[in-house]
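Quick start: load a record and inspect it. Here is DUF2203 family protein:
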Amino acid sequence: MKVFDLDTARETLVVIKPIVEEINTKRMELTEAYERLQEEQDPLERMYLESHIKDLEALIDSLFRKIEALGGVIKGIDPILVDFLSFHKNRYIWLCWKEDEDTIMYWHELNEGFAGRKPISLLEEEEDML
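Running the structure step on this input writes:
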């Protein structure tokens, strides 16, 4: 698993954010296709919609795999949460990003989840104390 410093994680996030946007766009399309399938009576149209749904699901899955290939660890999908493994003060931590945030602003210990997020400024304060 790739280990990031904060700058590298933030640089990688610049690549990941458009992927997340595409995932969300495809999810909306998927929801619409499911709704249309529920209402559709024509067997040929239903077959098309079922095929389209499978294609969208496969595309969404491949986009999530693309994020993982870049080193991000998917921790949630609604909203999308991506963590980046990092090493700080002789221990591993997660740098944490949620899809509506501009950049990585939080971190948490490996054994903590989203609820344990702390501001990045705390890491910077620890560095200043050394």
